[in-house]
Amino acid sequence: MSGLCTEDLRKAFGSNQVLNGLSLDVPPGSLTAVLGSSGSGKTTLLRLIAGFERADGGRIVLGDTPVDGPGCFVAPERRRIGYVPQDGALFPHLTVAANIGFGLPRRSRGGDRVTELCAIVGLTGLESRYPHELSGGQQQRVALARALAVKPNVVLMDEPFSSLDPAMRASVRADVRAILRSAEVTSVLVTHDQDEALSLADHVAVLRDGRIAQFGRPQELYEHPVDARMAGFLGEANLLPGVADGRTAQTLLGAVRLRAGLAVETAGGSVVVLIRPEQILASTNGGPGIPATVVDCEYHGHDTVLTVRPDALGQLPLRARTDGLDPVAPGTAVKLTVRGEMLAWIS
Amino acid sequence: MSVAVGDPGVIARHGRGAHRRRTPRVLAATSVIVAAALLVPVVFLLVDAGQVGEASIARLLFRGLTASLLWNTVRLAAVTTLLCAVIGTSAAWWIERTALPGRRAWAVLVILPAAVPDFVIAYGWLSAAPWLTGYWGAVLVMTLGLYPLVYLPVAASFRSADPGQEEVARSLGLRPATVFWRVTVRQARSALLGGCLLVSLALLAEYGAFEMLRYQTFTTEIFTEFQVGFNAPAACALSLVLVALGVIILGGEASLPDRGRTSRVGPMVARAGSRLSLGRATVPVLVALSLLVAMALGVPVGMITYWLVHGGVSTLPATTSLLSATLYTAGYSAAAAALAALLALPVALLAVRHRSRWSRVLERSTLLVQALPGVVVALALVYLGTNYLLPLYQTPPMLVVAYAVLFFPLALIAVRATVARAPVGLEEIARSLGKRPLRARLEVTLPLIAPGIAAAFCLVFMASVTELTATLILVPTGVQTLATQFWAFTSNVSYSAAAPYAAVMIALAVVPALLVGRWFSRNQSPSATLQP
Fold first, then answer.
1. Domain B1-38+311-525 sits in which CATH superfamily?
2. Which one of B14, B432, B445, B529 makes the best mutation probe of the A interface by having the most chain A beta carbons within 10 Å?
3. Is some CB atom of chain B closer than 8 A to the CB atom of A138?
4. Which of A310, A316, A296 is nearest to A240 (CA)?
5. pTM higher than 0.80 for the full model?
6. Location of each CATH 1.10.3720.10 domain in chain B
7. What ipTM was predicted for this assembly?
């Protein structure tokens, strides 16, 4: 099992600088998600790691072996990297078994390894089918089995679940995670879906402006975004202007407690405070709090997200989460209270 | 016979188009050599013209004959192209989009005339109605011979068109006839234009049928000047006009904005549109199609059969001469088909996978050959042979090269369409699984584009078997092909002696025609594209 490391990776297409000094360290055996909006260079990063493109600058090291860098380039067929593209890209002229066995030496193509992989990805009995006879989820599994067949050092997955319908996505995701765990392989998954990144990966790297803006475990990223923009990118965020004094900040929602150890604690002054929707409680039963009116109600079943506008003039709408027992009609008067400690940055 | 496809349109997007790949030098170099080889005839036509001299060319061109030839060519091209467009589009719509009884049989029957050379259609009509000569005879025969060039691409386009657009138009309150004009025809626009382009280019190039129908065009006059009058300068001067006409037509089509592109949101789903019921129009449509097939296929095939049966034993040719002509024809055509398919491969790979301004220019320059009629290519090769390559003059290789050059665009169109459907991403996956570049190409891309190569072979083979003009000029000494022997007999009005040669020619061309028709119907339907 080997890790993967890129240092100061650069790649431009014409005048478009896609990767601009990207450094990423993927720990051996982990599943790392690279999260970025579309067009942020996620696919380019994977294609560089796989060796389909050559970097303009920087290095890629696989385990202990440099595979791309000044004066060094290892061809894709010698990198032992499994690549699972967005649509699976199965060979349309080959059966499931032939697709999975494609990278194996000729004599072992019909052997146990293919049967074993079919069993691992849950496709036993479909070996003689052709790709167009499979569902999207099944195609995705074949693509994964094909990549795993050659016992790769690293598996790269390019938005592997985006072409699946939402109902199937969750189950295929869970399967893929279990398969990768049991295969004990280092894997990198790129996605634009923050839910997917946070729920699936051991580590998340956020790709922004051609660099990794933040890297860490999902919980770290959600709870400690490096800046306000990151907070808005990972999960829903209410970003409120405020004035900080020690561990308290005055905002439109009154005084809120700040987390200990923030830079604003000593500096003070005008700040941006992050309040997650789940930290704002909207109560329909009166009581203390800031008076506000419900503008919109998104009922999700397991919870309800309200858009509320504080009654004081000139206020921006806020997002607040309720317990979801009953939908709330727009126009309902509520009282807002905040709970927990907040993050803040100097604005 | 030739076939055009609109832009393949659906280019699978593995590996994302935005990633530019470095152009491999070998591929680029091979493509440049192919393009240069294809343009040799043009170069030698110009060299030839240079030797004739400006003054004499001007003298040869500025005479009444040129004007009357121009008028003959243009009025024929305009009317015939229009008729082909109407007939081809209507037939395609009836067969692909309506609940016409016996559609499958009709789909085969209407493309079969493509396998019958135009001069055999002329032969059929003339032996049935000897008075049918001149302008209207030419219009009739050429329309019947060339409408499949419009039918094939338009039918393919109707088949792959998104039925959702028509349904949306209906839901917006448009009546079926309005939907046909405002949606259906627009969807097939680029296919229709491509078909019309081929029809007009074929009209410029045709010799045999016009000679039989005694209708004078540039091509017949060039041929006469060269073959009968041995007047090479006059032939060269007229060739310049002919090539200029071809280039004008080609340029005109290319300059039209390409609004035929389709855009789709979301995954493409293979879904057959509902077919329109013809209702009371069913019988008239069936009558119209029967009439079309009877005129285009029934008359020539019927007349050949008539002459075979009534010709009597004495006029039938010796079996040996028929056999040898068949073998020569099949051999030359197969060699040319293989050569053209081989040459098309690097150009198609370059054009699809390494899109850049210069790869487009290169591709366009190879398609310029479309504007070169057989007589011009043949004369250029005669000039090249007699002046520089005397040992090759009137040998099989020269004829094979002439066919390969003439029909290269057909091969390119067929190969290109499948290369566009064999995404480079698959080759990359194969490499990540440990295959070397060449192995990856052989194991993944080759099987995927094999149908396109086969289609290219069929198209060029079919076109070569039925080629007459260049064959008459370049046929190796002492050899008769099916076309030249047929021509020799019909020139002596030995219609019955000619019949067996026409029959074998059609038989040789019919199989590839059916294969190509099948390939078109499979390759253009959405279900055949690579989709998860």
1. MetI-like (1.10.3720.10)
2. B432
3. no
4. A316
5. no
6. 1-38+311-525, 39-259+282-303
7. 0.74
